[in-house]
Specification:
The protein is mainly α. The protein has a domain at 1-21 and 50-78. The protein is 71% helix and 0% strand. It has two helices and no strands. It has helices at residues 2-29, 51-77. Helix 1 (2-29) packs across helix 2 (51-77). The longest helix is centred in the first third of the chain and has 28 residues, at 2-29. The radius of gyration is 20 Å and the shape is rod-shaped.
Length: 78
């Protein structure tokens, strides 16, 4: 049960950090279209694709698994 808690805890932390970093990068790299063709600006903004969430979850799970394995192997030696 301790290994499961460690895995879930590290997964949640890594997932939140990757989501924050992803949002930060999308916000920084966004360039609004400021074309002045006489029409009022739309209040609609779109970022990337929805498949990015799956990639973030996959990377988070992989890092959490590696962290839990590293933690477990360090505590077996001592």
């Amino acid at each position: 049960m301790k290994r499961y808690g460690l895995f879930i805890g590290s997964f949640i932390v890594v997932y939140i950090l990757l989501q924050w970093a992803s949002g930060f990068l999308l916000t920084v790299s966004y360039t609004p279209d400021l074309s002045s063709d006489g029409t009022p600006w739309l209040q609609e903004v779109s970022f990337g694709q929805n498949s990015l969430s799956f990639v973030v979850v996959l990377i988070s799970a992989t890092i959490a698994y590696i962290l839990s394995r590293t933690y477990r192997s360090r505590h077996r030696r001592t």
